[in-house]
Amino acid sequence: MLPLFPGDSVGTMSLDAPQHPKHARRPPWLSVSLSKIRKSFPSIRCEHVRASDGGIDWYLVCLLCDPDQSFEVGSEHDVPKFVAHAQDAHGITLDGESSRHESGMWMPRLVETPPQTSVGESSTAHSCLAGKADILSQFLMEQGLSTSFAQALRTVGIVNRSRICRLGALPDADLDRLETRLASEGLDFVACLLVRAGLRRSLLPFPRRKYADSPVSPMEHG
């Protein structure tokens, strides 16, 4: 196992994989991803390991889980899944003033508005709902769609940025079903396509890199 960051504890999880030669270096996209995780989420504790039968597969291992939980990352586009896990399972949030400016790193242009401090439970609940509505409205506006579709998104279960990110990782067959459901809620064909494209973009926070730029071969990327 290879420590993700200096000073991080190293978990005891074993993937029962053979040791790989030292020349199997971490690919550049993974180094960039780890740097961004560290900058935006200083409280995350994890490590990365490589394990495969004949090739090289890269994993992020969450050391906050008991037992440790691993996430295969075949490309930079898989890293947001690990971040979403840390947010959902452990309540990890952006830390520090500088990292607030990097919030779009994981969900481009989708920044949740925190509830305003108010007196009374009803006012607090209203502020929380308003924050969620703002996320959906902002998502729709980024796709060039009317915010009137926000209720349709809530009806099918698209209620927060974590779900938006997770939906973007689903296979096409599942997104086809989502399109059908959105159409039944009143979205026209083009609107459904734009929502789908927006979900896909939410999973692409990093620029694509060609394998030729990496010191390891395409097979080593998984």
Total E-strand runs = 4
CA distance, first residue to last residue: 18 Å
Provide the β-strand percentage band: 5-15%
Largest sheet: 4 strands, antiparallel
- Oligomeric status of the shown chains? single chain
Q: Record the strand order, biggest sheet.
A: 1-2-3-4
The structure class reads: alpha+beta
- Overall mean pLDDT stands at 65
Count helical runs.
8
Our Rg estimate from Cα atoms comes to 19 Å
How helical, in percent, are the residues? 40-55%
Low-pLDDT runs: 1-23, 96-132, 205-222
The sequence of SSEs as H and E is EHEEEHHHHHHH
Query: Can you tell me the number of structural domains?
Result: 2
What is the approximate shape? elongated
Region (Disordered): 1-26
Describe the structure.
The protein contains eight helices and four strands. By secondary structure, the chain is of the alpha+beta class. The chain folds into two domains: about 1-105, no CATH class; about 120-200, no CATH class. The chain has a four-stranded antiparallel sheet with strand order 1-2-3-4, with helices on one face. Helix 6 (about 160-170) packs across helix 8 (about 190-200). The chain is elongated and about 50 Å long. Residues about 1-25, about 95-130 and about 205-220 have low confidence and may be disordered.
